[in-house]
Write a structure and sequence with these properties.
- The structure is a homotrimer of 204-residue chains.
- The first copy, chain A, is mainly α and 204 residues long.
- Chain A contains eight helices and no strands.
- The longest helix of chain A is centred in the middle third of the chain and has 25 residues, at 85-109.
- Chain A is globular and about 50 Å long.
- Chain A binds chain B through residues 19-20, 22-32, 34-35, 45, 49, 52, 54-55, 58, 61, 64, 74-75, 78-79, 82, 134-137, and chain B through 49-52, 112, 115-116, 119, 130, 133-134, 137-140, 142-144, 149-150, 193-199, 201-204.
């Protein structure tokens, strides 16, 4: 139950980020809702399609409801939201950690190896934002801005390390979530970036 | 048989819309054909992948043939097409209605609940256009312009309402198609729009 | 074993093309790696999802490793790469031919008809580049520039023709690869293009 609430908080924050970006592009209400929804459930959907397991949101409409709440909050409290960006970023980081754990565990549950599970944790956590950016026709932010997907990757590795040392599922999950969350929050706090690629020498 | 012809008319109109947009971007013949094809069958393909049922166009090449006809029509009769835009929009609305019904029925046929069926009706009807806009690198039109996906949504709801009152499959399908078509045509005729999101207060 | 090396050379060249385009957009290292990876395995992934067979890269991490090599090569030898563009283009054409054969054969292996196999050969060969261009937010190159997907298409047709004349799998595969490679290399050498669509008369 606690984990379910954490997941919904993450979905709420993800949907808000999608709806706010859609607002800046002057999408209509429907478009903004869809962009919010895709941000929240796109990563998990891509994971389920790649793993060939039933797409999770066909089993329960909670992501649709949470996106509706996000939508109402953006419309009613837009000004106040701007002042609470830090809170939203923390919610988003919590969701990132939770989504990563879910992605890793779903993959291991169907018997695939650890490195696939790490890839699926990353896809679950970070690809909702990639699909969002494709829908609003922008270059995906996570490919250019601070540490985001890298936090999922390190969280997934932490899961594998604890498992290799004989930790049970709870210990693995906690390690994964703590590492993902910590890396993401520290990256935000200290403005960590990955090195950029240099096109200059490229001659084109 | 009648329904099959209606479906092909819808595919024809959808492919035309994709090919014309690709023409404006100066794609080559192959690129324009692919964009037309994806507009016509993209929504149904996404639906089948999400439902984990065989992708419909691997069973018959009729969508490929219809897109070929659309292609020939655009190349040969481009000037005349511009004068018949209203007819194309009506064909497109007919296709939207038909696609929505197919999406709803395919979902109910595998035992998923009504709200998933409504979502899949909307995806079948409206996401071909979203994939088209992603391919030609534009912001998806349906997120900004008049009532399009909303017509599918209301049509799907009409299906559910008639079913809840004990209507048989034919009555449900007719209600769904009539509502989708009517809403879409009225929206075009009277320029109905959904409210837009406002970025102004957003501070970014 | 020989075929496996050819496939990896193709993946290497595809990943390089993705990483170089990501560099021009100033993506960070992680983003460039993902774009390279999607270019290399995106076509095959889409094929496997559409065919509803297990996604090939969940069975072996060789594409992930090859993309890592491509990444190192781009970072370490960027200047030299520009002088060896012709070699890269030949590698890429070799990969295109190999990917097309794999796509055709995987489709026939699950009992689908020849025309679906040709479509899947084309998707395997050419859609990695489409997904790459969607990720970096550009109009897909293959829809506007020289003969690329058309080479896969003709290669697939060659496969079908040899099969219709009673050729065994090896003969079919060789014919497909030779045609794809030849068409692609000749198109590059002589600057062959498909006719472009004309928007002028379009009135919009």
């Amino acid at each position: 139950m606690f984990l379910y609430i954490v997941e919904m908080v993450g979905a709420f924050a993800a949907a808000i980020s999608g709806i706010r970006l859609a607002s800046m592009k002057r999408f209509d209400w429907f478009g903004a809702y869809i962009v919010g929804l895709v941000t929240a459930l796109g990563g998990g959907t891509l994971r389920d399609v790649l793993l060939d397991i039933p797409v999770f949101w066909t089993r329960s409409w909670d992501y649709f409801a949470v996106t509706g709440i996000s939508m109402s909050v953006v419309i009613a409290f837009q000004k106040q939201l701007v002042r609470r960006l830090n809170m939203l970023l923390v919610f988003d980081a919590v969701g990132l950690a939770m989504f990563t754990v879910i992605g890793v565990e779903k993959t291991l549950a169907i018997g695939l190896p650890m490195w696939v599970a790490i890839a699926m944790g990353l896809i679950t956590g970070a690809f909702g934002g990639v699909l969002r950016d494709i829908l609003i026709n922008e270059e995906p932010l996570i490919f250019r801005k601070d540490i985001y997907a890298m936090a999922c990757l390190l969280g997934g590795v932490a899961y594998g390390v604890v498992m290799a040392f004989g930790g049970n599922a709870v210990a693995c999950g906690v390690a994964c979530a703590v590492v993902t969350l910590t890396v993401r929050v520290l990256a935000l706090r200290f403005g960590w970036h990955l090195p950029m690629m240099h096109p200059d020498d490229d001659g084109e």
